[in-house]
Amino acid sequence: MSQFEITDRNTIRLSRDGRESPDSPEWTRNIDNPYLHGVYAPTTIETDTDELEIVSGSIPEDLYGAYLRNGPNPVHEPRFNYHPFDGDGMLYAIYFKQGRARFCNRWIKTEAYLKEQEANEAIWPGVMGPFDFSLPGFPIKDTSNTDVMYFNGHIMSLWYNAGTPYKLDTKTLETVGREDLNGQLKRALSAHSKVDWEKEELIFFDYFDEFPYMSYGIADKKGNVIHQQDIELPGPRLPHDIGVTQNYVILHDCPFYHDVELLKKTKKRVMTFHTDVPTRFGVQPRYGAGSEVKWFECEPCYILHTVNCWEEGDWVIQVGCRSTNPMPKADPSEGKLSHMLAYMRLEANMYVWKFNLKTGEVIEGDLDTLNTEFCCSNPLYLGYKSKYSYNQYIMQRDKDNVGTLAFGALLKYDIETGQYDRYDYGPGVFGSETPFCPRRSATRADPEDDGYLVNFVTDTNDWTSYCLIFDAKDITKGPVCKIKLPHRLPYGFHANWARGEDLSL
């Protein structure tokens, strides 16, 4: 039996017989941190192959493009307490064309990755600190391990904290270098920038610890910044997403933030949820001046991810996953990792906000109360009224998971009714964020759910990983195709779909 027993609340179950994943680095064996073991254990393998085993079904002929997933995969033993946001970024892709598939995964070679490879050891601390302001770039490691999307001829990877975006080759996943928007990027990009397929624009935002604390901008399809505005906030914030309609952007000012003076004093960023401070959403004309933003006060909450936003007359609608407890109470029995483990448990549910631009009225409320997040919608509907959201069910503490972030089921929500269909991955099987993949040459004139859902799952019973393809019209029937991947995939963060037409596959 492994030294990490299921009775140890600091760790997840490794497998039914307690074995550690065989391809994880040796240095992980002596670190008692659940995000370095089991399904989260880093891999040492990079692969590029089209020799993939189809376990069941067949690959649809009109599935044309690439499923991209980003995630943490630390190379070196961390200097300080490890947080999953600290792991070196690794990008995974499975390409589909004419009923065939090819799989590839590569480390994202950030500047920090290259410097640590040269030193053969970790240099940067992570988000749990201590922040080291003497280091080049960021005082903690910018890993580019969080989100991924196609933009301006490259795949672009982004980081949880607003960080440096990186360009990767669309076919090999090799790192090309920084994405600086033709030298016009002032500082950094948030993790959740948006690519508008219709307008061929990148809508991005940045946040920082100095006045005015936020900015947002728009770049055209060639990467030229065509609009950028500063947004004044009451103080430093850590917004995670942005809403986009045809004529507006929705900016987030949530009462979950840190004290800069305390950060300077302790070298640690201590997040506090201020329950007496309203959450504010700023509806800003898409190409307007920053001074035109109209703020709406709502119930205190934190929001990680939006589903979609759109306009209905004088109303702007935002649908997303809302958390009223972004910093769950830490369990003292979990020791020095207790606050990190509490934060990563993620309590959220589907929610809708409505803002009346004429009267200032706000209507808000639950769509459903199930613990669910990592929500995706049809990208052709960005900024237009949509009906469906594809979410991950966040597992609770049970025999398979004792409190780490884990996805146990795929959900298809009807936003109009709050009802959902559900597909459970199975005991010991954990999924990934699941974007909607339109059929080849699809347009918004086609039915909204006429396409596919693609994701990766890992089975901790035997350490195999698979790609699952679903018909988005009915996920309850299970995958229409199951493809065995060449090796175990560590747990990841965000995923996206890139059209084959854009990638020139």
TrEMBL record:
Its cofactor is Fe(2+). One of its GO terms (molecular function) is metal ion binding. Binds 1 Fe(2+) ion per subunit. Residues 1-22 have a biased composition (Basic and acidic residues). Fe cation binds at residues 192, 240, 305, 494. It comes from the Bacteria. InterPro entries: Carotenoid_Oase (IPR004294). Pfam families: RPE65. Coiled coil: none annotated. The keyword Electron transport does not apply. Residues 1-28 are annotated as: Disordered. Keywords: Dioxygenase, Iron, Metal-binding, Oxidoreductase. GO terms for biological process: carotene catabolic process. Belongs to the carotenoid oxygenase family. This is Dioxygenase. It comes from Lacimicrobium alkaliphilum. The lineage of its organism: Bacteria, Pseudomonadati, Pseudomonadota, Gammaproteobacteria, Alteromonadales.
